[in-house]
Write a structure and sequence with these properties.
Elements: H1 2-10, H2 13-25, H3 30-55, H4 61-83, H5 96-124, E1 128-131, H6 148-157, E2 168-170, E3 174-178, E4 181-190, H7 193-199, E5 202-209, E6 218-224, H8 236-243, E7 248-257, E8 263-272, E9 279-289, E10 296-300, H9 314-326, H10 331-335, E11 343-344, E12 354-357, E13 363-370, E14 379-386, E15 392-395, H11 406-416, E16 423-432, E17 435-443, E18 449-456, E19 463-466, H12 469-482, E20 495-509, E21 514-520, E22 526-530, E23 545-552, E24 557-565
Parallel strand pairs: 1-15, 22-24
Antiparallel strand pairs: 2-4, 3-4, 4-5, 5-6, 7-8, 8-9, 9-10, 11-13, 12-13, 13-14, 14-15, 16-17, 17-18, 18-19, 20-21, 20-23, 21-22, 23-24
Length: 569
């Protein structure tokens, strides 16, 4: 409430200044002017209080300028009319009120120009690094998530377990880690104003595992009075605004659950750059609201309690990607030259970004970047924005050059099952044994999960579909190992020295190269070697004794880096 009162009072500064000038210049009508001004001021403050209460404008220089102009335009004529003050038309520079109005107009123009120039400052405030390539995918520590559309569909079907279910709708799904498991959490929200008046508090929230396609949602009873869908002073956004009227709120508050199962509403806020509404990425904070009492605690985003995965909202991460891609060389360059400009794709599941988790359980927002030139469907690289610190890492190594973008990956899936209308969603680029690989969820028209698709990012014809993430990954790795054009991608797997007797041999030839696949006695691992690495491998026969250095994977395949054949080498 203090924030609303403060904003309301600040919006009358120009009105009061002009009213004082009217009072000073009209000595014969001062009593009438004062009485009229006080009456209009009281009426105006009451009216603006409700306007501010409804729209919650942030206390920033641009916003206060606009509010002051609106208030002055609406109420100053009433002072003149109510006190019957004659209007004297003078040249603007000879009138004190005219000088003030001219100064306000210049301030508006100045703020507009500064807002454009501040784009570079916002870009500079981003904590950013560049790397060649991401660490290889580990299927045990880097979980592949089910698309939120599919999870939401399941939760919607379970809404009947909620008491007084007719009062509620399902709120925003939030990915987070609870007790070491990646889950989606979604609050139950009021469906309308009248439901809020009748229900007064919501019943709880749902959780559903985010990496198990067969998982079912679980409803957790936990009464919540302060929610996104509550009205008046029980609304989360209004609670945060009351304490932080000078901070801009990024997106809707999302629910996160602590280790005891208690839900909290988490709202990302940031302090804008001076004289503008542009974000200062060094000033990201998070406000955590108790949905029972409405108590609020504020932290620097990076220092939020450990249970908070998304201290930086997906909306702010998306804005960060936009600033990083467009304003690398300033505002003018983003319009005319466009040197080094990159445009974020919009295939993400939340505000054009997709939450993913690494092997340490940390959440990032993934986005691939495309060229601003039209009809170019290749990715320039991709970004990962840390969901607690806002730090951005851009991956643009040679490995990622010339690969298809997320839209292209989705289109490959869409063309695979045209008769069923299955579509691709939630494309995420992973490093699979040195190969950039799109992992895509395949959904039916009802949003139900059907398959995973693993698509080689630099070869649109190389796609593997399967029912589970691990099964599809193993099949994809096996095909890569058997593909003569792909056996060199083995980064991230340590070299192992082995020796043995060859049991079976298969030679595969293409226009560009030859590869040899073989089995060793007593093993089922499929070894693959190209003749470019071991020219004498083409003469390999059953019964040959060999010594090799190979990268052996857990899926039963291996690529050979060096080979010695007894009797030949």
């Amino acid at each position: 409430m203090i924030g609303i009162l403060l904003t309301t009072v600040l919006s009358f500064l120009l009105f009061l200044t002009l009213s004082i000038i009217v009072y000073v210049k009209n000595t014969m009508r001062r009593k009438k002017i004062m009485k009229t001004t006080i009456g209009i001021l009281i009426f105006g403050i009451i009216l603006m209080f409700f306007v501010v209460y409804a729209f919650m404008p942030t206390i920033t220089v641009p916003n206060m300028l606009i509010l002051n102009i609106i208030v002055a335009v609406l109420f100053i004529p009433l002072v003149y009319g109510g006190a019957k003050v004659p209007v004297q038309y003078q040249t603007m520079h000879r009138s004190l009120s005219g000088v003030i109005v001219l100064g306000v107009a210049i301030a508006v123009i100045g703020v507009f120009i500064y807002s454009i120039l501040a784009l570079q400052d916002s870009y500079d405030s981003i904590s950013k690094t560049e790397e060649e390539e991401a660490r290889p995918l580990n299927e045990d520590n880097t979980p592949i998530a089910v698309a939120p559309e599919s999870a939401r569909n399941k939760v919607q079907k379970a809404m009947s377990v909620v008491p007084n279910t007719q009062f509620y709708d399902l709120g925003k799904l939030q990915a987070q880690q609870v007790d070491g498991e990646i889950v989606y959490v979604a609050p139950v929200e009021f469906s309308s104003f009248w439901r809020y008046l009748r229900g007064k508090e919501t019943e709880g929230y749902f959780t559903i595992p985010a990496t198990n396609i067969n998982a079912q949602p679980e409803f957790i009873e936990s009464k919540m009075r302060y929610t996104n869908s509550s009205f008046f002073h029980h609304n989360i956004q209004r609670v945060v605004y009351g304490k932080h009227p000078g901070h801009i709120q990024s997106g809707d508050a999302q629910i996160e659950v602590d280790d005891e199962g208690k839900p909290w509403y988490v709202q990302t806020i940031y302090k804008p750059l001076l004289f503008s509404n542009r974000p200062d990425m060094d000033e990201i904070k998070v406000a955590i609201v108790d949905p029972v009492s409405g108590a609020i605690e504020t932290y620097d985003a990076a220092k939020a309690p450990e249970f908070v995965e998304g201290a930086v909202s997906s909306e702010l991460a998306s804005m960060e990607n936009e600033y990083f891609g467009k304003y690398v060389n300033g505002w003018l360059n983003s319009i005319f030259g466009k040197k080094d400009v990159k445009i974020p794709n919009e295939a993400g599941t939340e505000s054009s970004v997709t939450p993913i988790f690494n092997e340490d359980g940390e959440m990032f927002y993934f986005t691939d970047m495309a060229s601003p030139k039209e009809n170019i469907d290749s990715a320039l690289g991709y970004t990962l924005v840390h969901a607690r610190t806002g730090a951005l890492t851009y991956y643009n190594g040679q490995q990622n050059q010339g690969i298809m973008d997320s839209k292209g990956a989705n289109q490959i899936v869409n063309k695979q099952y045209p008769e069923k209308n299955w579509t691709g969603t939630m494309p995420v680029l992973y490093n699979v044994d040195g190969h950039p690989t799109w992992v895509v969820n395949v959904l039916d028209p009802n949003g139900l999960f059907k398959q995973y698709a693993y698509i080689k990012a630099n070869d649109s014809d190389f796609a593997v579909f399967g029912d589970t993430a691990k099964q599809t990954l193993n099949a994809y790795r096996l095909q890569i190992a058997q593909d003569p054009s792909g056996v060199e991608g083995s980064q991230g797997v340590d070299l192992t020295e082995k020796s043995g007797t060859v049991n079976r041999v298969l030679v595969t030839s293409t226009d560009s190269r030859q590869s040899v696949q073989f089995l060793l006695e007593g093993e089922t691992t499929i070894y693959t070697v190209t003749t470019s690495k071991a020219p004498h491998a083409i003469f390999l026969q059953e019964g040959d004794r060999i010594e090799i250095q190979a990268r052996i994977r857990d899926n039963g395949t291996a690529t050979v880096e060096e080979m010695q054949i007894e009797g030949i080498n």
